[in-house]
Amino acid sequence: MQTRLTINGTPHDLDADARTSLLDALRNHLDLTGTKKGCDHGQCGACTVIVNGRRINACLTLACMHDGDEITTIEGLGQPGNLSPLQAAFVKHDGFQCGYCTPGQICSATAMLQEVKDGWPSHVSGNLTGAMDLTDAEIGERMSGNLCRCAAYPNIVDAIRDAAEVKA
Amino acid sequence: MKSFDYIRATDTGHASAEAAEGAVIIAGGTNLLDLMKLEVMTPDALVDITRLDLKQIAATDDGGLRIGTLVTNADLAAHMTVRTDYPMLSQALLAGASGQLRNKATTGGNLLQRTRCYYFYDTATPCNKRAPGTGCAAMEGATRLHAILGGSDQCIATHPSDMAVAMRALDAVVEIEASTGETRHVPLSDFYLLPGDTPQIETVLRRGDLITAVILPAPAQGVQSYTKVRDRASYAFAMVSVAGRIAMDGDRIGQASIAFGGIAPQPWRDADAEAALVGQPATRETFARAADILLADAKPAKDNAFKVPLTRRTLIATLTDLCGKAAS
Known about the structure:
The complex is a heterodimer of chains A (168) and B (328). By secondary structure, chain A is an alpha+beta fold. Chain A is built from 6 helices and 5 strands, in the order E-E-H-E-E-E-H-H-H-H-H.
């Protein structure tokens, strides 16, 4: 299968079996190993990437279905010396222990903050149409697709809140 | 994962024709690809419909809403008309899955997602749904997720969707295009089939059928909500859920539309329980009588007897809340 993926602004031509997940394409075919494989079943969120502006689980989608799509991975959000606000906030707040879930956490949070900006309600929002504060409960609910086995959750929430405030 | 041919559909006719030849339709893929990894499903071909023009949400001539089959769960939940006129649907969608999955999962795919019965997923165990005639490991197994209503001695799996439960209470209609090119409309009430002796047949869809949209009727009167009870606060399937709409007529209940998730092989609705509410005062006795009717035929399995009182309490709490809001 020939597939053209634009990853972090750079076009890549992939020739892989139709079974190749987007996650395996990134890691095994394109050497972009920042995106992590955790459960490989959409339950842990370690593989979260941003496709055409939306966060998705790269493990639960076929690379060949993304021909022509724009994909942002952790490598595209920032690099050492030029961190994204969320990357910097995770360092500042020690938002990890082993670090394995961190790329997924940061990609997920990056797109999540845009969802908040777009006014999307969540399961814990008091109402569906009014203004909402990005409380710890909102962050927890909106990030429930990203698990951290080290349970660095308090610091992850602090980092996301901090980055959201800086952004606002 | 077994190997398969990948076909990108150019239009709905192409998708239906490939499906009629045996290809499995893929859209969001969040459930299908998981099942293919586990080799619970092993299609020879996939037909990808994600490039088709089925992503619109549009008003219908009679004041309802037509939701294209490829509208994602995230976009549907955030759509302002859904939030204001069909709030139980937004609430149900937001109570389901995770942010990442809602961005991929589609309207048609959500309706067609498969049960999360552990034994359906475990190819080392018998399952009449996965491998008809092999038996049902759930009957003597772990049954916390399983049905208390509508099951058979062949299968007690539950339908896992939250979205479909709200759509059932909203009297949604499924628009289907057949490989002959004909379009037909099936009310969601007639769309799912009970397991009986054929738990592998879950819907009225025929080979080559493509869901093209779900249509909601014009918004009904009253107040509505979706209440979900689960084992953890987020990102878990329902133990019990209640999608409810109540309109008051003076100090009595004028209209009641109530659907349940997590307790049956399909989004569950009981016309007798609803009829027991209409015309009655909004009291705990009225609500308890409706719960008695709903649960009269409940048949819990080994681990899920708790669902009988839990369903009862969740229904009573939901009705108390809705009637209070509808009266004020």
